[in-house]
Amino acid sequence: MSILKVILFIASLLPAAWLTFALFTDQLGANPIEVITRDTGLWALRFLWLTLLITPLQWLTSWNKIVMLRRMLGLYVFFYAFLHMLLYLWLDQFFDIQEIIKDIIKRPFITIGFFTFAALIPLAVTSNKAMIKRLGGKRWKKLHRLTYFIAVASSIHFYMLVKQDKVEPLVYIGILLFLFAIRVYKQRRKSKQVKPDRFLAKAALE
Fold first, then answer.
1. Engineered SS bond to 44: which of 81, 85, 149, 153, CB 3.0-4.6 Å?
2. Using an 8 Å Cβ cutoff, are 42 and 19 in contact?
């Protein structure tokens, strides 16, 4: 598992390394700022989908240790989302607070993006073992359910951002719906299994 973590850590940095290299070697086209801002946001979305994929993979393979990769993937969600936000604040708005506030109010997809990033911050801060112990398992799990809100809000943000060809954001929304459907199916199966068990326990007591 430690070797897999190292491989995953390095592989997760490759998109950022490539974008940096492409930026300094003039390979991002006529509007490199737009490309690098868009792509960092897309990579945040992709890593978020990967974190949501971990649990279904655990169910499918019964490989419980795979959940140990989820925290690293989650931190990479924040890493790429942070780059995405930083590029917007720096290269698009030049850290002009008044203009940023106006933009957040004026453009709904920016509003959604801003609140989505804000929701990521407590998840990143509480991703270490010390915070899990401090919050307690139940409270930590409740807090990290924000992941579902972030996933939905990110999908809406991406859909609203794309002006013409909506195919790509719709593909991401379709993947998210599939990942949610797996969870709903699993939960329903679990509840159906619990009911007979309760009935048998009650019958045994009688």
1. 81
2. no
Euclidean distance between CA atoms 152 and 94, whole angstroms: 29
**Number of structural domains, the chain?**
1
DSSP state of 166: -
pLDDT (0 to 100) of residue 190: 80
Retrieve residue 165's tokens.
Answer: 């060809």
Average pLDDT score, the chain: 89
Q: Which domain holds residue 185?
A: 2-205
Name the residue with higher pLDDT: 175 or 91.
175
CB 150 within 8 A of CB 120: yes
**Sign of the CA dihedral with 39 first, then 102, 166, and 163 last:** negative
Show the tokens assigned to 16.
């950022």
- Residues 176, 52 contacting (CB under 8 angstroms): yes
Give residue for tokens 């393979």.
Answer: 61
Token readout for 3 is 């070797």
- Residue linked to tokens 């801003």: 114
